[in-house]
Amino acid sequence: MKCDPTLYRAAPPSLAVKPRLIRQLFLPPLIILLMIGLGFIGFWTSEYYGIRTLGENGERQLELHARTVESEISKYTYLPSLLELESSVSKLLAEPSPEHRQTVNEYLEGLNRRSRSRAIYVMDTTGRVMATSNWRDIDSYLGEDLSFRAYFQNAVRGQPGRFYGIGSTNGEPGYYLAHGLEERGKIIGVAVVKVRLEALEERWQRARLEAFVSDENGIIILSSDPARRLKAVRPLSDETKERLARSLQYYWATLNELQPLAREHLDAGTEKLTFPANSEVVADDQEVTYLAQTRPLNDTPWNFTLLTPLNDLRQAAINQGILVAVAFALVAFLLIAWNERRKVIATRLAAREALQEANNQLERRIAERTGDLRASNERLKAQIRERRQAEETLRRAQDELVQAGKLAAIGQMSTSIAHELNQPLAALRTLSGNTVRFLERGALDTASTNLKTINELIDRMGRITASLRSFARRGDDQGEASLAKAVDAAFQVLGSRLDNLPLTVHRGFSQAMLQIDQTRLEQILVNLIGNALDAMHAQPAPELWLESDIHEGKYRLRVRDNGHGIDPETRKHLFEPFFTTKPGEQGLGLGLTLSASLAAATGGNLAVEHPADGGTAFVLSLPLAGHQPGESI
Ligand code: ADP
């Protein structure tokens, strides 16, 4: 079943191609851009929340470790004030004799051992060391003038002296706690305890904690990473640098600024710092980013900073970002695949609908055309019925005509028949009278001869009447006819006319059985031969040719004469009924018409030829008996 292509409503090419082209051109870069964007958002969000969580954890760690530092420092704050209670110390300060010094030296030595501090010493109000716990050492502070030290200057004014510095004698760093020794409301000297805080650093290192403590000048005094020690956490002005250098607080250290590769302020006391990697931890070319959380240490002007590495977090955030990008790509791919599939289904549905519509239309058209066909079929049937009726009427008319022709022929022949019969009747009368006389005379031989002649005459008369009867009989279309017999019969019917004619008959035909009623064939031949005889009545040497051949499966009998022929005007009307050129009662004009219709009724035909050498030839074509139409011989 074919579908009407106009039923498919295809989009115009200009409209159908453009969106697809745009999609194909812009969709992949868009997806890649979105992937990158979402990957970044994923990375950023993960990092942000990761830092927040780390920050919260770090806050607790910061608190914990800052407290540890505070307690480590505050452990020693009471120690210098203890010396106020020691009478030997006040004695020494009041009277600096070698005995008093020795007593205090030994006392301080013992106290220092017990408190596990680095050194304990006592200074007079001028800043000279009067007694010290390390009096036995070569680099003992004894007799040294430390009046330039800030802790001394504070303490001698009655303020607590807190100071981190590097020792001027041995360059050893330490935390100095100074206290002005009072006696009766007057400062008589200063007691100092030097503490080493390296134990804190070691503890941090053991705990793999990255932290540092920066002092009031912003100088890192304690650090889990030794490389950061004595670095400034904030930029120092030249003036400050000079002041610090003069105070020898940090001995001769250069006090470079701790310069991170990147610094990002996040919150109050929270920063993101990136440092070149510590070679011990990671490879040289890498950098480490830390979350730096700072908190001031109580009772000191110092700050404690906790560094939490963010590299793992960053890696996790990168993974998260990649995951988000991949997930998005997957979702995008699934969406595209789903969309494509949806479109394919939609196209299929549309095609199916169009096909259904085409089918419906086709069926409608078929129904319409079937209706038309049925109507025209009905019309055709009616026409066929009418035509059959007309044919029937015509056939009946033809039959009537044939019959009329026969009757006419009978009438026409009746004269000659009467003449034919009168002759033998007259002869019979004469012969029978003579025979009676011969019998009376006893001339039996002559009487017998006469009787034989009478018999012959009666036979002849019987033949004449028989042929007349057969001519008049209404034949039917069925049956077979012997051509030779028909020719003989025709000559017999026309016998009386032949007697007066010096006719030469050329029987050049071959005997055949033809598919026509015997009587009808005889009637046709009587007509044709009769006409030929008429045409030759003025011919001194009349000749009749009967020839045959087979043409297109039909038997053709040619009846040719050498008569006067047919003039052109007559040729036009030959087969018309009642057309005749014969005068008076001689012609009815039915012979050829009837013969042609008899031949046609059996599937044959009758035609005329006009030979160049004169005369006329009628060609009778008839089917051979037992031969179906279309069967070749
Ligand atoms: P009819 O013999 O009664 O005239 P036909 O139908 O047999 O009627 O013939 C019609 C006419 O055809 C004849 O009148 C005659 O003029 C012409 N015709 C028929 N046969 C011949 C023939 N063999 N030669 C010349 N003329 C012929």
UniProtKB/TrEMBL annotation:
UniProt xrefs under SMART domains: HATPase_c, HisKA
Regions annotated as coiled coil: 345-407
Localization in the cell: Cell inner membrane
Gene Ontology cellular component terms for the protein in this record: plasma membrane
Superkingdom of origin organism: Bacteria
Reactions the enzyme catalyzes: ATP + protein L-histidine = ADP + protein N-phospho-L-histidine
Keywords attached to this entry: ATP-binding, Cell inner membrane, Cell membrane, Coiled coil, Kinase, Membrane, Nucleotide-binding, Phosphoprotein, Transferase, Transmembrane, Transmembrane helix, Two-component regulatory system
GO molecular function, one term: phosphorelay sensor kinase activity
Segments forming domain Histidine kinase: 416-626
InterPro entries reported for this sequence: dCache_1, HATPase_C_sf, HATPase_dom, His_kinase_dom, HisK_dim/P_dom, HisK_dim/P_sf, Sensor-like_sf, Sig_transdc_His_kin-like_C
PROSITE patterns, sorted: HIS_KIN
Gene3D superfamilies tied to this protein: 1.10.287.130, 6.10.250.3020, Histidine kinase-like ATPase, C-terminal domain, PAS domain
Topology term for the membrane: Multi-pass membrane protein
Transmembrane segments: 25-44, 317-338
Record-linked Pfam families: dCache_1 (PF02743), HATPase_c (PF02518), HisKA (PF00512)
CDD domains in alphabetical order: HisKA (cd00082), PDC1_DGC_like (cd12914)
Enzyme nomenclature, EC number: 2.7.13.3
Enzyme class: transferase
Protein name, UniProt field: C4-dicarboxylate transport sensor protein DctB
Species this protein is from: Pseudomonas proteolytica
